[in-house]
User: Which sequence fits this backbone?
């Protein structure tokens, strides 16, 4: 079983930056596709960025050019660097590891004030 622990959320003003971290239990990046999702109040959870086990990265149109997903295999950690944050980025952000099973972290709150 994969365990994921997110950190790095917080309150930031519009235009600011945050870096989220997702620490995984074990060496999983060669097997699992990793993703960052977010869920705002009253909205469905949506995929923000992904880093596949083959090494390709993808972003939603709403964050392209502002967010960057990366990983450190030595630390079993996936990051989401978020720049030029907007109030509409406010949400709970979740880390996901997916192969035949899907595992989720507990989520970390990101709040962007205008």
Assistant:
């Amino acid at each position: 079983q994969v365990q994921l622990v997110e950190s790095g959320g917080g309150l930031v003003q519009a235009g600011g930056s945050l870096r989220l971290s997702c620490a995984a239990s074990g060496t999983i990046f060669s097997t699992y596709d990793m993703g960052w999702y977010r869920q705002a109040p009253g909205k469905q959870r949506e995929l923000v960025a992904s880093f596949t086990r083959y090494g390709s990265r993808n972003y939603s149109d709403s964050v392209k050019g502002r967010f960057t997903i990366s990983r450190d295999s030595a630390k079993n950690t996936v990051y989401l660097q978020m720049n030029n944050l907007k109030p509409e980025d406010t949400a709970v952000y979740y880390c996901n590891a997916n192969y035949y099973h899907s595992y989720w972290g507990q989520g970390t709150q990101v709040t962007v004030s205008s």
